Amino acid sequence: MEKMKGKNWSALKEGYLFVVSIDDKEAIVATLNDFVAQTGIKAGSIIGIGAVNQVTLKFYEPENGEYKEKVFTEQLEMTNLTGNIALLNGEPLLHLHITLGRGDYTALAGHLEEAIVSGACELYVQEIRGEVKKDVHPENGLNIYTF
Ligand code: FE
Q: Which CATH class is domain 2-146?
């Protein structure tokens, strides 16, 4: 296993699988973008757990093609982060969704814009080699796989 370290993250690499830890109090999406840039991963999948104390969620409204956004500032269990990495216009693009547990054991969920670690953030990133591309859909404006 190869040990790796970047800006606000550390990782273990075994083949095409990375075990990633994001430092406490750091921004998950910004750090994952740095991880992807440093490792050169162009496509793959991401899963993770941890805890955050601030999150910006988005919700897609198909009727107007826009995302509404909301910030939550409270301690939350990151019960699941799920996402993918693909190439958009030649650059790796992260698409992340998140489910968060509140202090009253209800859940918040949505498209993840950004979140701040409060405790730990433990991720597995599975790389896939080859061209996995997305393009902007001409009608709904979403980034859609183009195989
Ligand atoms: Fe999404």
A: alpha beta
Distance CA(13)–CA(25), nearest Å, equals 24
pLDDT of residue 108: 98
The rounded Å distance from CA 95 to ligand 1 centre is 6
CB 9 within 8 A of CB 23: yes
Compute, in angstroms, the gap from residue 22 CA to the centroid of ligand 1. 21
β-bridge pairing 107-127 and 133-136: unpaired
Cβ atoms of 41 and 94 within 8 Å: the answer is no
CA of 118 to the centre of ligand 1 (A): 23
Which tens digits make up the pLDDT trace of 2-45? 999 999 999 999 999 999 999 999 999 999 999 999 999 999 99
Residue keyed to tokens 């993918």: 84
- CB-based contact 72:108 (threshold 8 Å): yes
Q: What is the mean pLDDT of residues 105-131?
A: 97
Chain center to CA of 21: 13
Q: How far is the CA of 46 from the centre of ligand 1 (A)?
A: 14
Q: Is the pTM of this model over 0.90?
A: yes
Break the chain into its structural domains and give their ranges: 2-146
